[in-house]
Here is the input.
Amino acid sequence: MMNLANLRIVLVGTTHPGNIGASARAMKNMGLERLVLVAPSCFPHADATARASGADDILANARVVARLDDALMGCGLVFGASARRRTLPWPEVDPHQCALRAVSASAHGEVALVFGRERAGLTNEELDRCHFLVHIPANPHYRSLNLAAAVQVLAYEVRMAAREEPAGAIPPWTSAQAPADEMERLYRHLEEVLVETGFLDPDNPRFLMRRLRRLFNRARPDCQEVNILRGILAAIQGRKQSKQSR
Amino acid sequence: MMNLANLRIVLVGTTHPGNIGASARAMKNMGLERLVLVAPSCFPHADATARASGADDILANARVVARLDDALMGCGLVFGASARRRTLPWPEVDPHQCALRAVSASAHGEVALVFGRERAGLTNEELDRCHFLVHIPANPHYRSLNLAAAVQVLAYEVRMAAREEPAGAIPPWTSAQAPADEMERLYRHLEEVLVETGFLDPDNPRFLMRRLRRLFNRARPDCQEVNILRGILAAIQGRKQSKQSR
Here is the structure.
């Protein structure tokens, strides 16, 4: 059994505290311990504790944060549970593929599995933070899984994937994958440069930044690569870069 | 998607009607429709209906019977969900193997997946009715899955097994992957810009271009993305780009 301590479950904007409790129970059953709650409607709450049914330690240790970006600090790989998205196709995996990748990556760094609101799911902006969308196959006439049921399915696949070393694991990278917060700084810097050069019209941004996010998220840059990219951006802005940083 | 009409879920001696409702929802989400209840403590019940959340048709069509044997009538293959049994080793499968066998057998005959009581599970006598025990891998220090969560895991694996498309298909991409020659033009353009901005010293290029190639090759940009990147490079060089190209 591999160590799952680097794997966090992030619940965004959960409305019903009972679902938080049931998710905690599903996590603990499968050996996951780190729960992060982004702006839950009511927590702590008696319903959460009741449904946790013995997994109250997960609730007691849960981190509550205001924004998704706070929840993703330090994460090099982020999966977002989602129904299919229409506007812009995004790399998509099924729960099994998600778990194989998540477990394999968690040997080297922090990984997050993100679940959205009971009714509305994750916003497009939140999905843009994810490297992959996870789509749980479902009845096309009745798609909406209960939140804790979705957590259960992914946590189960994670446990299955962690039972033994998965074959074909990703080779260890020279440098650690850049965490989410560093990627956000990169995207802000990139956007700034694109506006300065006139390529991005802030009044009519269209899908440009989202397309670029999708592109770089696929590549999953490591810290050194992000440093190079930011060095390039700074050079474009005319700031002299020390060549050592390359 | 294969037909799952020959597959029934059997819940034995369920104590909490809420779990019956949540199980019905999990079933319907995964495309399973036939629910049989063996001597439930209270059914129908408002808690069952509330937790079914739109899967009330499954509840309305549920058969209620007095004994497990009645529930298994006509079934050629029976799986019983169970923690490991001690007294007598029994053929055991994991949820994935269970689903593969269940779906394959359901093409020719009736199959049942049986779940026991919330606290006590299935009795040995009931387990004797099963061809295979299904063991859901769990944290050895916290094994007891919620009943509906166990139904969700097996129903999910059944749906995965019934998919006709093989797993691992790449989502349809908006535009074709850029061919090698187009990528070469991108890299030459990028190199030009890096030299112009002073970030790349042609007399001492080091690994910069190879690092950038490795990064973009991982992302495998499509033609549209390469157009965007080249548009950005042109904008940096001060050539005005038509905004249509985005």
User: Anything to note?
Assistant: Chain B touches chain A through 64 residues (CB under 8 Å). Residues 165-172, 240-246 of chain B have pLDDT under 50 and may be disordered. The first strand of chain B starts at residue 7 and ends at 12.
